Amino acid sequence: MPYVCIHCGKKIKQMGNFVRCEYCGSRVMVKSRPNLSREASTD
Ligand SMILES: [Zn+2]
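# zinc ion complex -> structure
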């Protein structure tokens, strides 16, 4: 599961213990969850 940098929004493929964003250098990132944003909607 890819990670997404919360600072610049770039996708990070590396999944080590301490993954650093190669674009902005941020180490804060979250797991990519495509369905999370639509989970609240009730269709
Ligand atoms: Zn970044």
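# post-check
The chain has a mean pLDDT of 78.
The CA atoms of residues 6 and 22 lie 13 Å apart.
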